[in-house]
Amino acid sequence: MKKIALLFTIITLLVLSCKTKENQKSINQPEKPNVLFIAVDDLNNWISPIQNFSNVKTPNFDRLAKMGVTFTNAHVQAPLCGPSRASIMTGLRPSTTGIYGMTPDNQIRRAGNPVTKNITFLPEYFEQNGYHTMGIGKLFHIHAPDSVFNESGGRVKGFGPYPKKRFVWDGFGKGIKGTHGRTSTDWGAFPENDTLMPDHQSVNWVTERLQRNYEKPFFMGLGFLRVHVPLYVPQKWFDLYPLDKIETPPYKSDDLNDIPPVGMKINDLPMMPSTEWAKESGEWKKIVQAYLACISYVDYELGRVLDALESSKYADNTVIVLWSDHGYRLGEKGTFAKHALWETATKAPLMFAGPNLPKGKKIEAPVEMLSIYPTLLELSGLPAYKRNEGVSLVNMMQNDAGIDNSYGLTTFGMNNHSVKADGFRYIRYEDGKEEFYNHSNDPNEWNNDADNPIYKAQIEKMKSLLPKVNVIWDEKSSYTFQPYFVEQKARVNGEEKKPVEVIGADR
To answer: How many structural domains does the chain have?
Structure first.
């Protein structure tokens, strides 16, 4: 009996010792926050916490803004889905990687690209530091490279349900079939209810997982397909915006008369509706109405996510970041598209919320989506990833540090760049031609002042922020919607004789 009692005492002491060590560990090492990583495709700054264009109805974007910090002047690293998302997920600039166009998710990191062959994607860095990672929807260009997430919900093909016949736009416009490709652009009320939308199903997936128990902190990615074209959502979202109340964005018919040739080539999108066509056909307000309807639909789905988080055990210890991969032009500069180095294409929403962040704060300084990777690491208490080219925004959010020197750099194709800083925009194309805009007196970028001598010093200052390295196009990266990018890649890579596969709308 004495031996049994002694053995029991020893076991009890060992258990107590282990518990003491666990308690000490929890005291010395605070629990890491969870991360909710939300991407919204093609969302510009029209949401009510930023621009509130045409009295857009976004109560849940407002709700998120009150929970944390909203950057009203955030800029993407490329005004195109694929390279923009690759930049966020790698933490590297397009000029560093050569990923200027669309790249298959599984080809972003590959042996043939010396820069990306050993890169650690953002979700992987969290996994390597003790996180359980999950993702659904459009996070990279399609969904995600194989095995990036511990749990993947995948993504439906295309951009949701389609009617049997397009409502307005055939997808080709004035473009030549087999040369320019086909856009998914179209607009109208479809389908009948929200439950038929892939984004609704993605939110169901996220909601269910927010009810689970996890042994580790989690990183959860949610990629919304809307507001990407086609601008299809159920009728009730259109009903929020009567046509007679719709505003159209500023437009000047001779706006492009002072744009350099490369800028004009980049803006040449024959498959997309032009602003002049939209005016003449009476469709301009209808396109804007459809875009606003899509924003309000995404807002509704965002509200479902926030409801699920707030009713979960993770409500008080979760970092939220919401971002878009680029802006979107709704008639500005003559067309309806992203694809440009101007303000309405490069600027997009960026919002953070979570423990130790101010609530209801807005920051107007220009920043970069490239900062998402290092910012999330710092907010989560993880060591910095030395290969990140962006800078953390935590000190700016908490203490306003770095606001005076902040800027945004956007790249579109090899050696075409735009810099936003100090209330100005500077653009330089590969042939050395320039654009310059003073946003204090020209917010719509209607007057190119690159040759105005009073701005010489400012231009030189902004020119110094351009990348020092501009690598050639990555072999697996391409963009065939515009002949200019096909020609540029062939020219700089020495591939003039290679056949080009034209990209069409992915249904």
So the answer is: 1
